[in-house]
């Protein structure tokens, strides 16, 4: 699996909340975000293809 970097702006409050949650769950922030993304439901609409990165 190729790994990509992802950079985003986030408030300090949300970052601290993410850090605390990851610590409580004994996991990494990356894993928490990956699990959240994996849980997103994508509706089936015809034969639309996934957008590609530009």
What does this molecule look like?
This protein is mostly helical and 54 residues long. It has a domain at 10-38. It is built from 2 helices and no strands. It has helices spanning 12-24, 29-39. The protein is elongated.
Quick overview:
With 54 residues, this protein is mainly alpha-helical. The protein has helices at residues 12-24, 29-39. It is elongated and about 40 Å long.
Features:
single chain, 54 residues, mainly alpha
Order of helices and strands: HH
> Helix- and strand-based class?
mainly alpha
What shape does the CA trace take?
A: elongated
Helix content: 40-55%
Q: CA-to-CA gap between the ends?
A: 19 Å
* Beta-strand content: under 5%
In DSSP terms (H or I, runs of 4 or more residues), the helix count works out at: 2
Record field, number of beta strands? 0
pLDDT < 50 runs, ≥5 residues: none
The Rg value, from CA coordinates, equals 15 Å
Q: Sketch the major β-sheet.
A: none
Mean pLDDT score, rounded? 90
């Amino acid at each position: 699996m190729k790994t990509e970097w992802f950079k985003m702006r986030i408030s300090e409050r949300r970052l601290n909340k993410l850090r605390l949650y990851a610590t409580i769950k004994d996991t990494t922030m990356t894993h928490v975000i990956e699990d959240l993304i994996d849980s997103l439901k994508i509706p089936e609409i015809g034969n639309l293809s996934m957008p590609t990165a530009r």
